[in-house]
Amino acid sequence: MSADTDSFRSFFGSVPTAVAVVTAAAPDGTPQGFTCNSFAAVSADPPLLLVCASRASRTLPSVLASGGFVLHLLADGGQELGRLFAGRSARKFDGLVWRPSPYCTGAPLLDDDRILASAECTVVHAQDAGDHSVLVGRMEAARVHPRRPVLYQQGTFTPWQRAVEAAVQA
Asked: What CA dihedral angle connects 42, 43, 44 and 46, to 10 degrees?
């Protein structure tokens, strides 16, 4: 059987992935963001990572115009943030505590206990690939908090558990 959009989504939906929120500042300073599960390490020296953004994303033009973004990995408890930023609402930042990143042109840096880690990045390369753009960012600053990550698989958020924790509970 040949691959189509549905089989592609089914294939990748079967793989548990970490979940992130990518934020950027629009040219007028308005905070924007989207949920992302397509990101990866590229290089440790220099520190580069990649993020894939839908070319239909309202945030992508702001990332490209500003030249910066923040990648926020979600912690357990961040499921609602993942759902919020996956939507099309213009009010995603209502009630959230954030500050402008000094490293990436004011992109919102979320200050929330539902964030596992954050990487403030400047865009060093952008390449269209199908219906997405692959953004390579240089990590300018990073923060990691001692929290448990959340995973996403087949439409469901699940707290991540180390193999040892799972074995003890079995």
From this structure: -130
Q: Which of 147, 158, 84, 93 is nearest to 115 (CA)?
A: 147
Residue among 57, 59, 12 nearest 37 (CA): 12
pTM: 0.90
User: Which tokens go with 99?
Assistant: 């500050």
Q: Give ∠ CA 18-54-20 in degrees, rounded to 5.
A: 20
The pair of structure tokens assigned to 33 is: 């963001």
Q: Is residue 61 part of a domain?
A: yes
pLDDT of 93 > 90? The answer is yes
Amino acid at 4: D
**96 in any annotated domain:** yes
Per the structure, how many domains does the chain have? 1
pLDDT digit string, tens, across residues 132-164:
999 999 999 999 999 999 988 888 888 877 544
Residue 143 structural domain? 16-169
- For the chain, give the longest Cα–Cα distance: 53
DSSP states of 104-120 as a string?
TTT-EEE--TTEEEEEE
Tokens standing for 149? 């990550």
CATH number, domain at 73? 2.30.110.10
